[in-house]
Amino acid sequence: MNLFKVLDISASALLAERQRAEVVSSNLANAESTSTPGGGPYKRMHVVFGAHPMQMHGFAMTLASFTDINAEGVRVDRVVQDGAPPVRRFEPGSPDADAEGYVSYPAINPVEELVNLMGAARAYQLNASAVQSTKNMIQASIDIIKS
Amino acid sequence: MSWLDSPQDNLLARYLDLAAMRQALITSNIANVDTPGYRTRDIDFHGELVRAIEHEDADSTEPVVREVQGLIARPDGNNVSIDRESMLLSEVQLQFSAAEQLLKSDFKTLSMAINEGSSGS
Q1: A13 in helix, strand or coil?
Q2: Half-sphere exposure of A120 (CA within 13 A, CB side)
Q3: B120 has a pLDDT exceeding 80
């Protein structure tokens, strides 16, 4: 088992969690956006994570031993739009109001988004500790040579 | 048996190997803490070690990766327990450094035997 590949697994999770935080931040920022380039209010986005065997290439592939186990990293499989209908508020003065005077706002619950953001931050921290632990193990292996 | 190729060093090497494999699986479990449908995976560390002791040529056999039973799954089908994984993360790290220290002290003894001979005369 190649310990450097273990770092890649953690790195894939750090990347995925950061992308999740980006999407959540975008939801929070656009909680009141009533118009988008595509027309209509902003739609809430979700990330969908998927487990994937780590791809190895070049040097790492040559180094990989035959007893390698199949440990999986994570990546953002897709970003989906929430299908929830927009929230309609009566604001006849707004330029985005429809014929009846209602403005469609995105169906975004800031509390839900913040909880999601905290989840992403915690998962990021956990993976960062995993990186630290793997680094210590690599350092210990190097110390065998130094003794 | 050669003095450079002692059975206990081979066993320690296998121990380090298994610890590294386990680290990979734990890291993978942690990475997939939010992946819907992901199941926690692990190897039977002690079972694999016993197998390595019984068959000294077990270097080339692949450890059995299995799904961990008895964990509580969330509604999305994911059953990664952060507490279990963080605990195992520190455990494996300690196991690794213990085996590493033993291996180091073995090499130190060897190097002492090599060097003290020359300085004595």
Answers
A1: helix
A2: 23
A3: no
Cβ–Cβ gap A6/B27 under 8 Å? yes
* Residue B59 per-residue DSSP state: G
For residue A14, count other CB atoms closer than 10 A to its CB.
18
Helix (H, G, I), strand (E, B) or coil at A74: strand
Q: Which residues 92-111 of B are in CB contact (within 8 Å) with A?
A: 92-93, 96-97, 100, 103-104, 107-108, 111
Which residue, among B34, B45, B96, B103, would best test binding to A if mutated, counting the most A CBs under 10 Å from its CB? B34
Using the Cα atoms of residue A21, residue A24, residue A30 and residue A35 in order, give the sign of their dihedral: positive
pLDDT digits 0-9 by tens, B24-53: 999 999 999 999 999 999 999 888 888 888
> From CA A15, how far away is CA A130, in angstroms rounded?
14
Q: Are the beta carbons of B71 and B81 closer than 8 angstroms?
A: yes
Instruction: Please tell me if residue B81 touches chain A, with a CB cutoff of 8 Å.
Output: no
Taking an 8 Å cut-off on Cβ atoms, the answer to whether B100 and A129 are in contact is no
Pairwise CA distance, residues A11 & A73, whole Å: 9
- Tell me whether B10 touches chain A (CB under 8 Å): no
In whole angstroms, how far apart are CA A13 and each of A76, A122, B94?
9, 12, 24
Q: Residue A66 pLDDT > 50, yes or no?
A: no
Neighbours of A136 (CB within 10 A): 13
Higher pLDDT, B1 or B40: B40
Interface with A, mutate which of B9, B14, B25, B32 (most A CBs under 10 A) = B32
Contact (CB, 8 A) for B4 and B10: no
Cβ neighbours of residue A62 closer than 8 Å, sequence gap 6 or more: none
